[in-house]
Task: inverse folding
C-alpha cells in the first residue's frame, strides 16, 4: 500500500515536471509562464496576473509588442511594451521599452550606461494572459509559511489517500 | 483614416530629432472600434508608430503617440493638431532627407482573459522629411 502511494506521488511529480519542460521546449522561452509583479502595465495587467510567453528565434521584435525581459545581472523579469526599435540588415536589433503606466521609458531600469535592450535580454513575448491566477505565487513568496503549509497539506493528501 | 502631418527636423548633437504634428480623424473607423469591443475586450492600447529605413539601420520603428481606450469609453478617435507624445530620435542621422517615413496606427487588444493580438490599422501616411535642418525652433 505504501509502495503504491509513493509511486503514485512520484508519477505526479514527474508528470508535472515533464509538462513544464515540454512547455519550455514548445514555446522556446526559459520561462513560458510568468506572474506580473508590478502595476507598471496597468490597466492592462495587474499584479498577480498570469502571462503566457513565446520566444521563437525568428519572431521579429516590433514596436507595440509586450515583451518580458531581464536586465543583465538581475533576476527579476520585467513586463513592458516595446516603443522603439532599430534593426540592422543582419537582424541585429536594439530596442527601448516602457511600461504603459509609467511616465518615462525604461532607461532608468537598465544597467548603468545601457541605453538599449537586445534579443538576448528577452525572456519571451506576451501572447496571452489570465487575470488574478498568479496571485498564489505572490502570496507564497511574501508569506513563506503559507508555502510550507500548502506543501505539507499536498504531501499529506497524496500519502494518506487510500484507494477505495 | 485621414492623417495630415507637418514635419521638420531639428538639429541635435548626434542624432536627428524629428518633429511631427498630426491629425487623426478616425470617425471612419468609429464603427470598427465599436465592434472590436466585445464582452472579452478590456481595453485597446492604441499607438501611432513611424516606420522607416536608414543607412545605419534597415528597419526603424518609433512609437510617437499612444492612448489607452477602455471598454465603455467613447470608441471614436478624434485628435486634431496633436504633437507627438514621445521624442522622435533617430539612431543617427537618417531622418534628414528621408522621403519614406510611414506613420501607421496600430492597436493591442487586451482581453479580460485570453490571447493578446496586435492589429495594424489599414491605411498609412507617408511623411517625407526635408533635406535641411531647421535652425531655430522655440518649444
Result:
Amino acid at each position: 500500500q505504501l509502495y503504491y502511494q509513493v509511486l503514485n506521488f512520484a508519477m505526479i511529480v514527474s508528470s508535472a515536471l515533464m509538462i513544464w519542460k515540454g512547455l519550455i521546449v514548445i514555446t522556446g522561452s526559459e520561462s513560458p509562464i510568468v506572474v506580473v509583479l508590478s502595476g507598471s502595465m496597468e490597466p492592462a495587467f495587474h499584479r498577480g496576473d498570469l502571462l503566457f510567453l513565446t520566444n521563437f528565434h525568428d519572431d521579429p521584435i516590433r514596436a507595440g509588442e509586450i515583451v518580458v525581459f531581464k536586465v543583465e545581472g538581475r533576476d527579476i523579469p520585467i513586463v513592458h511594451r516595446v516603443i522603439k526599435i532599430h534593426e540592422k540588415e543582419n537582424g541585429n536589433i536594439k530596442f527601448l521599452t516602457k511600461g504603459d503606466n509609467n511616465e518615462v521609458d525604461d532607461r532608468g531600469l537598465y544597467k548603468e550606461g545601457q541605453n538599449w535592450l537586445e534579443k538576448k535580454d528577452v525572456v519571451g513575448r506576451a501572447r496571452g494572459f489570465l487575470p488574478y491566477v498568479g496571485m498564489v505565487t505572490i502570496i507564497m513568496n511574501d508569506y513563506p509559511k503559507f508555502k510550507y503549509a500548502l506543501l505539507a497539506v499536498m504531501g499529506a493528501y497524496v500519502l494518506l489517500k487510500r484507494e477505495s | 483614416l485621414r492623417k495630415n502631418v507637418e514635419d521638420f527636423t531639428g538639429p541635435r548633437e548626434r542624432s536627428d530629432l524629428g518633429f511631427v504634428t498630426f491629425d487623426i480623424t478616425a470617425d471612419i473607423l468609429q464603427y470598427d472600434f465599436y465592434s472590436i469591443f466585445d464582452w472579452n475586450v478590456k481595453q485597446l492600447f492604441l499607438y501611432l508608430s513611424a516606420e522607416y529605413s536608414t543607412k545605419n539601420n534597415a528597419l526603424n520603428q518609433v512609437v510617437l503617440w499612444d492612448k489607452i481606450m477602455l471598454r465603455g469609453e467613447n470608441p471614436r478617435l478624434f485628435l486634431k493638431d496633436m504633437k507627438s507624445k514621445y521624442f522622435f530620435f533617430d539612431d543617427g542621422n537618417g531622418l534628414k532627407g528621408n522621403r519614406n517615413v510611414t506613420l501607421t496606427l496600430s492597436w493591442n487588444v487586451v482581453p479580460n482573459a485570453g490571447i493578446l493580438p496586435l492589429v495594424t490599422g489599414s491605411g498609412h501616411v507617408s511623411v517625407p522629411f526635408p533635406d535641411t535642418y531647421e535652425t531655430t525652433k522655440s518649444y
The interface with chain B takes residues 43-44, 62-66, 81, 83-89, 94, 100, 105, 126-131 of chain A (CB under 8 Å). The beta strands of chain A are 33-35, 50-54, 66-70, 77-87, 93-98, 117-118, 122-130. The longest helix of chain A spans residues 2-27. Chain A has three helices and seven strands.
